[in-house]
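Quick one, probably user error.
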């Protein structure tokens, strides 16, 4: 049975009965105890997202060589945060069990199961981000669009969590390995090869060895916000330059952040 608590950012969290800790699916999301009390897990995705947005709450990008800025309102930021959290917690208290399904793992930048190879896992992740990007651009409701942006940011951010992927910081943060949640993940301590079960310290942005990855997650989140907001501005203003630039920017973004080490680009289907 799920319980709801309204958080400081205005979003709703689905809380477990009692205060049992649920398995972390990515960078932690703030999970207070039930019915009140200290946090069970600290903010992670929320902090990465807010750092990416920045204190001025303004996302700037060039269109046709001229600077353009989008000021995000409080409701828009709230929708982005709520959408990001929903990938782990469900939407408005629907619960967390869905997040353990094989088809959901791509949204957390994880292998769908223990036997999936790395190239296929990467294509699942790339395909998910492509589909989410298309859905954002097709969405007519402004706040629903922001919620979907938050969900896409969740995948981008999880792709940098050391509990989800092994990246090489000395080689443009290419991906060496994509982990699996579940089989192969020893409880709490043990092998680092897979995501530990039920939780993994590497998912915490305060964990010393995760700080560099968290900063890269922030940088890539801001870059995605620039790309998607440029596309939205282009559609709103019927500006073909913004549309074509954002499409090219998105393809470069995929090639940069979702790239396997020591390989040419893995072909994962056509551009949206």
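Nope, works fine. Designed sequence:
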């Amino acid at each position: 049975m799920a319980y709801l608590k309204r958080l400081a950012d205005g979003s709703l969290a689905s809380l477990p009965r009692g205060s049992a800790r649920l398995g972390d699916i990515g960078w932690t999301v703030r999970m207070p105890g039930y019915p009140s009390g200290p946090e069970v897990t600290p903010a992670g995705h929320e902090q990465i997202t807010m750092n990416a947005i920045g204190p001025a709450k303004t996302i700037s990008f060039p269109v046709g060589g001229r600077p353009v800025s989008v000021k995000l309102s409080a409701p828009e930021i709230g929708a982005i945060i709520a959408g990001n959290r929903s990938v782990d917690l469900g939407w408005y208290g629907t619960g967390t069990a869905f997040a353990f399904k094989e088809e959901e793992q791509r949204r957390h930048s994880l292998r769908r199961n223990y036997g999936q190879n790395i190239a296929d896992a990467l294509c699942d992740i790339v395909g998910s981000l492509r589909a989410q990007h298309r859905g954002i651009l097709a969405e007519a409701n402004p706040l629903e669009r922001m919620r979907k942006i938050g969900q896409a940011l969740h995948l981008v951010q999880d792709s940098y969590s050391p509990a989800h992927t092994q990246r090489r910081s000395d080689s443009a943060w290419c991906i060496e390995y994509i982990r699996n949640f579940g089989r192969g993940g020893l409880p709490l301590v043990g092998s680092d090869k897979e995501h530990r079960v039920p939780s993994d310290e590497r998912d915490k942005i305060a964990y010393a060895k995760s700080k560099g990855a968290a900063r890269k997650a922030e940088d890539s989140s801001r870059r995605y916000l620039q790309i998607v907001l440029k596309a939205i501005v282009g559609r709103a203003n019927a500006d073909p330059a913004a549309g074509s630039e954002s499409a090219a920017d998105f393809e470069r973004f995929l090639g940069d952040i979702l790239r396997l080490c020591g390989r040419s680009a893995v072909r994962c289907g056509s551009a949206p």
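Residues 174 and 259 are 5 Å apart (CA to CA).
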